[in-house]
Design brief:
The chain is an alpha/beta fold and 424 residues long. It contains 15 helices and 13 strands. The protein folds into two domains: 164 residues, Rossmann fold (3-Layer(aba) Sandwich); 166 residues, Glycogen Phosphorylase B (Rossmann fold).
Length: 424
């Protein structure tokens, strides 16, 4: 596994996916090695429940920009992979997670003839609603290169499969849809902690939760815009926004402009222990993304037995069935978000039915046992295709060699014939 994030370094959803998938593959009898970036006091090497985790520092010199920083990291990932291969032998598959490790994956593939399986967790075009700037074009081109070099590509939703076909022209059969999952026992022993809950709301207040990065595509601005209507009809509500990101100041200003400062609480980044507590303390979770390839936070909320409201786009649209496993709202529409939240607040039977159906769906469709088996099958496809390609090249070379020998023989015979004719 090549990834730029792995716990305790968590930037987005990749860290959790790689962590959970790797541990499940170990349980199924495979050997998994993760090479990733070292942050803070994390050890350079550890065995994490059977997963060999190697971490590398980046170069000591300051990079000019983020792109250069990523390129320097890729050099370090390649060096570490070469060191491991020289000691332990070749890997069967390189599993590259997103464009951030594309150059390392390609270099290792070319040097050691190992197939790449690439997971594209999101696209630059999707995150930015198009490609406009030079840096965006560079990232978009790198994503294309990774999917081109990969023998098999994995995406987490049918929405993403269509996106990759449209953006990069990939063959339909090369793209494998394997959803992300969660550990279905994560919330089984956690009860609501009222002392923890009182940090954010009074006992009579219903908590509406947003969990995620505070960036435009997560749509939290539309949830804030829905609060005046929600408060007008159900005064005893509190919006808790958990996460950090570049929009924090802009979002705080919007809250002030709407005059709802006493009804909105920004928690900042929550650590791993507080995340499940926050879910259990909440009454409704809202994920109003404008772009979401999958939406693992929705699964977490569903498993924690909270009714969810999501935008009708991307992977969220596939996870949630309206009024059965959750509520959908029109993307980018604050009024629609408010209507869905209010219906859950007033209709307790609907909320209870949704919680039961959602938890059952998560357990059946998004458990890591099934996901790891599907991923292993994709690895096998990649290995078989690489072997077949190697055999095809070998046959072509043999034919070319025979053809050259035959050609030489024909030329020799022709020269001999002409020589004999001359003597005659």
């Amino acid at each position: 596994m090549l990834t730029w994030e792995y716990p305790p370094r968590v930037v987005g959803g990749i860290a959790r996916v790689v962590n959970d998938l790797s541990k499940r593959l170990i349980k199924d009898g495979h050997e998994v090695t993760v090479i990733t970036y070292k942050e803070g006091d994390a050890p350079y090497f550890e065995i994490d429940k059977g997963v060999k985790v190697y971490r590398v520092d980046n170069f000591m010199i300051n990079s000019n920009n983020f792109i250069d920083w990523i390129m320097q990291l890729n050099f370090q990932l390649v060096a570490k992979a070469g060191e491991i291969i020289s000691k332990e032998g070749k890997f069967d598959v390189i599993h590259a997670h997103d464009w951030l490790v594309a150059y390392a994956a390609k270099t290792i593939k070319d040097a050691y003839n190992i197939p790449i399986v690439a997971t594209i967790h999101a696209t630059e075009a999707g995150r930015n609603n198009g490609i406009r700037e030079q840096e965006q074009k560079y990232i978009n081109d790198t994503e294309w290169m990774l999917t081109y070099e990969a023998t098999e590509v994995i995406v987490n939703s049918n929405y993403m499969k269509g996106d990759l076909q449209r953006l990069f022209g990939l063959p339909f059969e090369k793209i494998n849809v394997i959803p992300n999952g969660i550990n279905i026992t994560n919330y089984s022993s956690i009860e609501r902690d009222y002392e923890f809950r009182r940090k954010y709301a009074m006992d009579n207040e219903k908590i509406i939760l947003f969990m995620g990065r505070l960036v435009y595509e997560k749509g939290v601005q539309y949830l804030i815009g829905a609060m005046p209507k929600i408060l007008e009809h159900y005064h005893d509500t509190k919006l808790v926004i958990a996460g950090k990101g570049g929009m924090i100041d802009e979002l705080r200003q919007e809250v002030n402009n709407l005059g709802i400062q006493n009804k909105v609480y920004f928690t900042g980044y929550l650590d791993g222990k507080d995340v499940p507590k926050m879910y259990k303390a909440s009454d409704i979770a809202v994920f109003p993304s404008t772009y979401e390839p999958f939406g693992i936070v929705a699964l977490e909320a569903m498993q924690a037995e909270i009714p969810v409201v999501v935008s009708d786009i991307g992977g969220l649209n596939e996870i949630v069935e309206h009024r059965r496993t959750g509520m959908k709202s029109y993307c980018g529409n604050s009024n629609s978000i408010a209507d869905s939240v209010l219906e859950l607040l007033f209709d307790h039977q609907l909320a209870n039915n949704i919680v039961k159906a959602a938890k059952s769906k998560v357990r059946s469709d998004y458990n890591w046992n099934k996901i790891a088996q599907d991923t292993h099958f994709t690895y096998q496809k990649a290995i078989c295709e690489t072997v077949a390609e190697r055999e095809r090249k070998k046959l072509i070379q043999e034919k070319e060699t025979k053809s050259r020998k035959k050609g030489k023989g024909e030329i020799t015979n022709l020269l001999t014939f002409r020589k004999n004719q001359a003597y005659a």
